[in-house]
Amino acid sequence: MDTVITPERIELPPGAVLKLLGNWQDYQRLLSQLGDHSVPRIKYRPGEILLMAPLPEHGRDVNLLADIVKVLLDHLGQRYDAFTPITMKLPDVGGIEPDYSFYIENWRAVVGKKRIDWESDPPPDLVIEVDVSSYTDINDYLPYRVPEVWLLKNSELLVYRLQSESYTISESRYFSNVSEIVRQCLQIATEQTTSETIRWLRNFLGN
């Protein structure tokens, strides 16, 4: 597949990342053009727009990681709301589409909402990103003050927590030893299926 960007359609080959010069208005136009399509993903930083077409392994790993979080939250008896896809936007500052977002401590703030105001509503408590093509930059989440970001890269889970004005690699505030749990789940998923992986996790937790 060739890269095509016209007023009528936007197409990128799987795994491609395209960086364009552009302002907030250009980003808004591209968002409108894409509508409800989830591919390509689109991101805005001041002065530039990034487009990315995920590979199949990206979607598989996103769904597996989200299912792991759900199993862990259910094990803890924790209420939550989860969103995907979702577009986080702050005018002229940034626009980003996390792979998966969880409201855990702030679930009450979004219950029943069809739209989230990123200037007044709280951000997700936990965001998941799977990076297969070097598209992700943790600092893109700084303007939104997302407390915790999980980045899966090269089959390794890195947990970033917001400390004052920057992100640092740390332990998850919600789950102990989660990086090792994810590593084991990924290993099982490569040998079997994601469904068997989740069954293993439930048995491991004693659910």
List the main descriptive attributes of the protein structure presented here.
six-stranded mixed β-sheet; 207 residues; 27% strand; 4 helices; alpha+beta
Instruction: Provide the gyration radius in Å.
Output: 17 Å
Largest sheet, in brief, is: 6 strands, mixed
Query: Uncertain spans, ≥5 residues at pLDDT below 50?
Result: none
First-to-last CA distance: 45 Å
Question: What string gives the helices and strands in order?
Answer: EEEHEEHEEEEEEEEHH
- What coarse outline follows from CA principal-axis ratios? globular
* Largest sheet, spatial ordering of strands: 6-9-10-11-12-13
> What is the helix tally?
4
Output the structural class. alpha+beta
Write down how many β-strands occur, each being a DSSP E stretch of 2 or more residues: 13
Approximately what portion of the residues adopt beta-strand conformation? 25-35%
The helix content, as a percent range, equals 25-40%
Mean pLDDT: 89
